[in-house]
Design brief:
Layout lengths: L4 E7 L3 E7 L4 E8 L2 H11 L10 E7 L3 H4 L3 H9 L4 E5 H7 L8 H14 L12 H30 L5 H35 L1 H10 L7 H10 L7
């Protein structure tokens, strides 16, 4: 792949910072709203660069785990992919380690560093492809399950810790006060886990892999779902 322009994008909740490196200099920097309209407006400016061609460019951005699937840059990836841009998601730790000791830290600087990283390590380029729709649904359900687990733990843990350290009647009162909420969270967790299993069961390839993964001692449905979500493109056909 012959790349002329390396586009670094630093993503925050509200804004996108863009920087383009041509192998010698940063030739473009801009900030846009983190929205499809913001992406399209910036792409219009980028296309005005001398000799620019989408096929000779690559957009590099940091991989932010679950947020790439359920929020964060998800719509940015989708928009750029529809416009035909080659896309590269790279570990934020990998980009940070490659830069050594760095002075200055802001989103514009980070975008430039991402663009320069893409140029320097272009031999490591791995193009991103959108996951199958079933994997996108699985990612949302898996994220929901994780949030419910955290909420349950935050509610249950203080109740457990009080036992043996406070008056027994107070401990029982606290447990009683949380009982209805914990019961509701248990029901929501069971529902999310049921939907995950149902979704996997409806997909022939995932169902086959599910049987293989869960045949390993200690690996359950939740872990299997996380494996599918983390697999590039989500265990493609």
């Amino acid at each position: 792949m012959d790349i002329r322009y390396f586009i670094g994008i630093d993503i925050s909740k509200a804004t996108l910072d863009w920087a383009i490196f041509d192998g010698k200099d940063i030739v473009f920097q801009s900030q846009s709203a983190n929205s499809q309209a913001g992406v399209k407006a910036t792409v219009k400016l980028i296309r005005a660069l001398p000799g620019f061609a989408i096929a000779e460019s690559v957009c590099c951005m940091e991989h932010t785990g679950i947020y790439n699937r359920t929020g964060g840059p998800a719509h940015t990836l989708s928009c750029l992919h529809k416009l035909g841009f080659p896309l590269w998601l790279e570990s934020s730790l990998q980009i940070k380690k490659s830069g050594g000791m760095q002075r200055g830290k802001n989103d514009a600087v980070d975008a430039a560093r991402i663009a320069q990283y893409a140029c320097r390590f272009r031999d490591r380029l791995r193009l991103w492809q959108p996951p199958r729709p079933v994997i996108q649904k699985l990612a949302y359900l898996s994220a929901l399950r994780q949030r419910l687990q955290v909420a349950r733990q935050q509610l249950q843990q203080p109740v457990n810790e009080m036992q043996g350290f406070v008056d027994k009647s107070l401990s029982q009162q606290m447990a009683k006060s949380c009982r209805a909420s914990l019961k509701a969270l248990d029901a929501d967790l069971a529902s999310a886990e049921g939907q995950i299993k149902e979704l996997i069961g409806q997909d022939e390839r995932l169902n086959e892999l599910f049987g293989l993964v869960t045949s390993v001692t200690g690996v359950g449905a939740a872990t299997a779902a996380e494996v599918f979500v983390a697999t590039p493109r989500g265990a493609p056909q």
